[in-house]
Amino acid sequence: MQHSKIEFGQATPIETRTGTKTTYLPSLGLTLVDARQTAAIDALLGPGRRTAFFMNAHCCNLMAADAKYAQAVRRADVLLPDGIGVKLAGMMTGDTLAANLNGTDLVPALLAQAADMGKSVYLFGGTPGTAKVAAATLTTSIPHLQVAGTRDGFVGALDPQLVIADINASGADIVIVAMGVPMQEMWIDRYANQLNASLCLGVGAALDFLAGNVSRAPKVVQNANMEWVWRLAQEPKRLAKRYLVGNFTFLARAASKAIAHTPKQHIATRIMDVAISSLALVALAPVFAATAIAIRMESDGPALFQQTRIGKNGARFTMLKFRSMYQDAEARQAEVNAASDREGVCFKARKDPRITRVGRFIRRTSIDELPQIINVLRGEMSIVGPRPALPKEVAQYPTRAFGRLAVKPGITGIWQVSGRADVGFNEMVEMDLAYASSRTVMLDLILILLTFRAVVSGRGAY
């Protein structure tokens, strides 16, 4: 599903226009951009005309209470995910989004790229003087940015036709509207088709941040996805209801929709995943610590290895493992490709010179896979499922192999208990397709029990 507002945009859908993905989240009933910031900006500044809104937990709560606002949101060309709440709502149905595209971070980056393209911007909104101060901040950090005009969102917004005439006379290519939710979205929905600008973007408090009216949370708080706590501490009276009551209401509503959308089999599987991985994380803590120490003692580099893998429906995620190779392993891949002992797409070599001594032991005992318990808790993987594939492997898939991406990848599965690396690629694909079409909780439990036998035997573990 994709948004394309014909009466304004007249543009082809965002995904086919730039290659930027969109993902439908059943828990929200919305289709959101599923891309990193750079790709999202490329899409927003691409050919055609479009409206774009940021969607966070508060926006979704307002949609539930205000039918006109909800209609305006659904008529927008582009919806951008903003905040930890949207991420959590996606995880409820196993959907992961590539990035948090909040307006405070995205707007300056978008305008920097717009300046490089020779595009100008009009800043509309905020208290009197806020847009002008924000413009000064932007032109200081982006000297070649063309600010076509500014206008406040109070007295300056009283006559919409004067606003429209002023924006069009300025020749602005981009209009930034900062009047707060839902007023800015309602204004854009009603008047964007009268503007000559190619992009009309509702940005909430972004101008206040740029003008210094509101301070950003420290980086450590931002990185922890806890910026809402910082905002609440700054304005407790105004934001208490929005964040404390609102966040609970949002998550409860999203969970209700997720449960209604999710088959009982998937709910049972997720409950089992969370229960087993939570217990395992606690019980295996000493093993985690000892393994990390052993890895660091033998070779330089971090104990954990992070690698991009392809998950359910082609979604990318960062898979965690204990590092079993020397740090330059990926750079030396070309040297060992010819030594693969497995036919087909996936590389595996019994005598890979890049593997450390500790690495051989933790591979033989499957200890290297244990950090994927964290991926399971995140909702990116399941305890049982197909082997998570590398992007370069998926790029070489024959058509039939894509069927293995219909379910979440797993720490263990049919191929793991049937010989792991001794199983050829084509045989592995057939096993995964059979599993995807007939999976049950009972089958998963049987495969988990068989995994212990496979670990003891060590067959195919290299």
TrEMBL record:
Q: Which UniProt keywords apply?
A: Exopolysaccharide synthesis, Membrane, Transmembrane, Transmembrane helix
Reply yes or no: does the keyword Aminoacyl-tRNA synthetase apply.
Answer: no
- What sections of the protein cross the membrane? 274-295
Q: Name one Pfam family in it.
A: Bac_transf
* Chain ranges of the Bacterial sugar transferase domain: 270-456
The reply to whether Transmembrane helix figures as a keyword in the UniProt entry is yes
Entry's family note: Belongs to the bacterial sugar transferase family.
Protein's recorded name = WecB/TagA/CpsF family glycosyltransferase
Organism per entry: Yoonia phaeophyticola
